[in-house]
Amino acid sequence: MPRYLSLIRVDENDNPGGPSDALMQRMGELIEEMTKAGVLLDTAGLTPSAQGSRVHYEGGQISVTDGPFTETKEVIGGYALMQAKDKAEALEWTQRFLRIHEPEWTVTCELREVMEG
Q1: DSSP state of 37
Q2: How many CB atoms are located within 10 Å of the residue 101 CB?
Q3: pLDDT tens track for 59-94
């Protein structure tokens, strides 16, 4: 079965308080359901971009920029690695994840199939 990576993009300035306790509970319930279904292989949230670094390679040179990255509106706030029978099933789980968020959240998930071999 193919694997899919869902990159969870958020605007850090949009909800600086982070997820509510209620949202975290709903996430936990969904994660448990996905794990029992054999779909979820791994998932995690990421620390704020202020604690991250970007490593860039161009023209044979490497540069490192420490966060926060003020020019970026959306950052990757987390990920989910899933194994699904097809893209349609992976999209269904991704949409369920988005629907558990409160209406004030703006979240985008970029779903990509993992290249095998």
Answers
A1: T
A2: 17
A3: 999 999 998 877 777 889 999 999 999 999 999 999
